[in-house]
């Protein structure tokens, strides 16, 4: 009975997260109320507050949820696993996935614009800024772990500065996304696998 209750609670929480994502993406964070989310998720407002302290907490958990479920982040997690024998191929797939239309379209949604604004301290909500800074730091650490695994497997040199290498790749990816947002349809560095190989070859100099 306890397991069933836990499963039902998890299912309700997931419905809330999915409803919040849809509404935050379409209406924006500020224009979406808890009542809107409750109606779409077919739950009570009290149920939302039972799972999440407030709307800000819900948004932060939504970002974590998307990070764990999305194929982009799953690849990075797999690349860091000690049992993975070819982490570099997964890291390269992770990089190239950022150039796919579905990922770029996802980053264009209002919810991610809002997240970006908060993370870059353009938003006045200090709680959100701290939460999103932590998420960015987590992404950085996961990439470092994946690169470290590549070092262990002999795919990158032992002397590589993992922190600098991870920062380099993340900066490149964020720059690419901004490049596309400005209306550019192609990018000379990331739209072909050969270009990706050149990028990773340059990591050996870090």
TrEMBL record:
InterPro entries: Homeodomain-like_sf, HTH-type_Tx_Regulator, HTH_TetR, Tet_transcr_reg_TetR-rel_C_sf
Sorted UniProt keywords: DNA-binding
Annotated DNA-binding residue span(s): 33-52
Listed name of the protein: Transcriptional regulator, TetR family
Domain of life assignment: Bacteria
UniProt key word Nuclease: no
Ranges of residues in domain HTH tetR-type: 10-70
Organism: Succinatimonas hippei (strain DSM 22608 / JCM 16073 / KCTC 15190 / YIT 12066)
């Amino acid at each position: 009975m306890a397991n069933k209750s836990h499963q039902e609670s998890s299912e309700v929480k997931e419905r809330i997260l999915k409803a919040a994502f849809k509404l935050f993406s379409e209406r924006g964070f500020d224009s979406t109320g808890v009542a809107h989310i409750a109606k779409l998720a077919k739950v009570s407002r009290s149920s939302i507050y039972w799972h999440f302290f407030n709307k800000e907490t819900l948004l932060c958990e939504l970002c974590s949820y998307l990070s764990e479920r999305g194929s982009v982040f799953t690849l990075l997690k797999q690349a860091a696993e000690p049992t993975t024998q070819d982490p570099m191929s997964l890291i390269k797939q992770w990089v190239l996935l950022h150039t796919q239309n579905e990922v770029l379209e996802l980053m264009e949604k209002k919810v991610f614009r809002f997240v970006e604004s908060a993370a870059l301290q353009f938003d006045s909500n200090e709680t959100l800024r701290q939460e999103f800074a932590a998420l960015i730091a987590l992404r950085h650490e996961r990439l470092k772990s994946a690169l470290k695994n590549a070092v262990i497997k002999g795919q990158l040199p032992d002397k590589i500065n993992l922190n600098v290498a991870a920062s380099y790749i993340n900066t490149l990816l964020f720059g690419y996304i901004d490049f596309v947002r400005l209306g550019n349809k192609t990018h000379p560095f990331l739209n072909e696998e050969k270009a990706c190989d050149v990028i990773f070859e340059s990591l050996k100099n870090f």
